[in-house]
Amino acid sequence: MTSPHETLLPSTARALLHRVAVAQYEGRAPSLVGAVVRGGRLVWSGARSCTEDDVPDADTQYRIGSLTKTFTAVLVLRLRDEGLLDLSDPLDKHLSGTGVGEVTIAQLLCHSAGLAAESPAPWWERTPGSLRPGLADVLGERPLLHPAGRRHHYSNTGYTLLGSLIAAVRGRPWEEVLRNELLEPLGMRRTSCAPQVPHASGWAVHPWADAVMHEPAVDLGLMAPAGQLWSTAADLGRFAAFLLQGDERVLGADSVREMRTASAPSEPGEWDSTYGLGLQIVRRSGRTLIGHTGSLPGFVACLWADAEEGVAAVVLANATSGPLPAVVAADLVRIVVDAEPRFPEPWRPMPEVDEALMNLTGAWYWGTSAFGLKLVADRGLELYPLSGHGRGSRFRARPDGTWAGLDGYFAGETLRAVHCPEGRLVHLDLGSFVFTREPYDPAGGVPGGVDDRGWGAPPL
Questions:
Q1: Which of 91, 186, 390, 456 has the most CB atoms at less than 10 Å from its CB?
Q2: pLDDT, tens digit, for every residue of 399-446?
Q3: Alpha helices (H) along 340-429
Q4: pLDDT single digits (tens) 80-98
Q5: How far is CA 175 from the centre of its chain?
Q6: Cα–Cα distance between 360 and 358 in angstroms, integer?
Q7: Hey, is 238 helix, strand or coil?
Q8: pTM of the entire structure?
Q9: Burial (0-12, 13-18, 19+ Cβ within 10 Å), 165
Q10: Is pLDDT at 331 greater than 80 in this prediction?
Q11: Beta bridge partners of 428
Q12: pLDDT class of 388 with cuts at 50, 70, 90
């Protein structure tokens, strides 16, 4: 039987190409490439160009700007997973002499360290990195603008520090670590710090005339971890698949999921967007998308992925402004998800069932609120309110016989089954909340006890 992931319907492919064509025309981009990933592989790509003689494809390099930050974040998480650092470590523990060493690695990753957004003038995106040979030149005399950890304030200089941190811990340049530990394992052979043929040229389009001017493409030096990379739609499709599934050669699924989790407060007035660990998180048309936008003079880029649907989109264009890659990429995801809804995996019974765990399942009561407890794969549990309102969570089994909450109000909290000395199951304890088999079961260890008069008619 043909897999539903192998190809897109012709009508879907046409709708995608139409969206790319409209984006190139309305955004007045010299060229624009779009691509879609579904089920872990590239299933569509299309492009439009101002000249029929030079139409790009999914293998044409564009500069991707701040999408580079997500690559840098992956390398930091690798160091954490190897035990070489902790995200709560102050920067000074691994990279001394910066003058901002009290900020934590996690704060740098999610842009809550309070650092300035840019390095001192002249603007780093249009001037060579040789003008900023040291971190002091990048940070300037007033690197901290806000109290650390209090607000999200996007910072390019913060990712310069993370790149220098990676180099310090590994003892090798950031670019070399990136190539050996991320690009090569994922097969991203067309992603590089310098452009490789075939690549697009960067252009500025005049705001009041259909005229163009070349934009400079400079080496950013120490700022490279914040925005240096060139890549292709096909390579970024591979990266999108990694961000959805993880890859043990680079970063496992749990750590990638951690990157996709909100880690910083939203900017005031932007409640539909937040930031994880090197990833933007946005709500668009009722969907949660993760990924990153990017821009450098002459180029704009975006990668969005819908983890729930397993669909991602990439948009690249060679214009300083005009095209809206974040909008277009979100539309490409929407077109595919709406036109070709995801097939659920076939239901299958668990390979083995533990009777002791089966005894935990069913209806439970927290006070007078009814909940269901369900056994899932790998000895996991799911708690959900039967009324449709209340605090539910998924739980992962621990070796000691307890469970750890994975999401919602009970994330990180401990669920344990409490038995009496004779071995009978008495109640569930979830972070001090007692769940009993009957509402206020007198035998269930309810905090505060149960009125001896029990249930009855209301007083007159």
A1: 91
A2: 999 999 998 899 999 999 999 999 899 999 999 999 999 999 988 889
A3: 355-358
A4: 999 999 999 999 999 999 9
A5: 22
A6: 5
A7: helix
A8: 0.90
A9: buried
A10: yes
A11: 417, 435
A12: confident
